[in-house]
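Exercise: predict the fold of this chain.
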Amino acid sequence: MLSRRTFLAASSLPLLRGETARAIRFGLLLDGRGGAISDATVLIRGDQVEDVLAKGRRAPAGYQQIDLRRFTGLPGLIDVHTHMTYNNAPKPGGGQWPPAARLVLAEENARKTLETGVTTVRDLNAAAGLSIAMRDLIQAGRMQGPRMFVCGAGILSLKATRGRRNDQTAEGPAEVEALVRKQIAEGADFIKMFASTGSGPDVSGDPTFSYEEIRAAVDTAHALGRGITVHSYGPAAARDALRARADSIEHAVDLDDETLEGMARQGVFYVPTIDHNRYYSDIAPEQKNWPAGVQAAFQQFIERNVETARRAHRKGVRLAMGSDAVNSMFGQNTRELAWMVKAGLTPEQALATATANAASMLGVERELGCVARGAFADLIAVDGDPRKSIEAVVRGVKWVMKGGEVVVPLRNA
């Protein structure tokens, strides 16, 4: 996990640190820490929450008043698995857009993400330093988007690339360690390791790194004060990630009881990313190079994914919301919450996967995922009570504030 000092250095927003004072009044405020406050007023100064006033207490003179009493207030949401720089926009004449163009195209993904109420993301793989550049542009106020935690490029094995070397590949513990060190030196906030097959139309989960290689990555990342997440579609690489003491595991299905109990005991987060295969199934008819029958394979994987999430929740594993949004999936980030409910979480527990749990996974639970004194002023207004129906969040976001500035004005009210 990131140290708090690293987070504050990486996520400050210098252009938003004025002393503008605002008072936002909600009919109901869910503060992300279990509190539900009727007729609450949140005092904002600069980019931080100054105070939260309960019913009967009003803002002092001098605060700009924002009346959102028709809505429920929540902390800004956190999506812990995105690919912000992925874009399948066609290039005239064919071929791939160059990195500079992909960075420009990513701004639309950022805007759509904010519109879902997601004000922070963890971005999990981008070539050519694109996510690091995007993070820094957003910090500097030169691009609008969610605050970003980034891994740069995820680590791939030569098995995964069929022997082709590039700046993401490593073989053996020594090369893995060297690559982790390189990525952190280049600005990665944390490390991602692709420890199994599985991506897009491929729903296999064959291990691609050995336990010793995963352990080298984990030990090096932790020694340098960074967290590490492991991509594993299947159970084998997830078991090795647990043994190696990784911080989170993405996607994995068919996890056995021993693995789930170990994850709960060690505090390893599970990010099931169920909805991304729904998205792939939806777009499958347009993909000419995908194999026949891929939609049935996606559906089968989704069912196993939901069942694994259900069992993980029952075993006490902490879940975090990751959309695995790519290409045209941005703007659908929070559909993952509905799958959490299908997996047996209450709507309130599902919401926590995108607030308190996600912030805890990033090591920033005092700054994000809550509405509390000293936290970043990331707030959203939704139509309805998410404790009764998670659809209030999935489809009901009406207004978004990030770092004390309104980034999605009131709409459709």
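Check your answer against the key: DSSP finds 13 helices and 16 strands in the chain.
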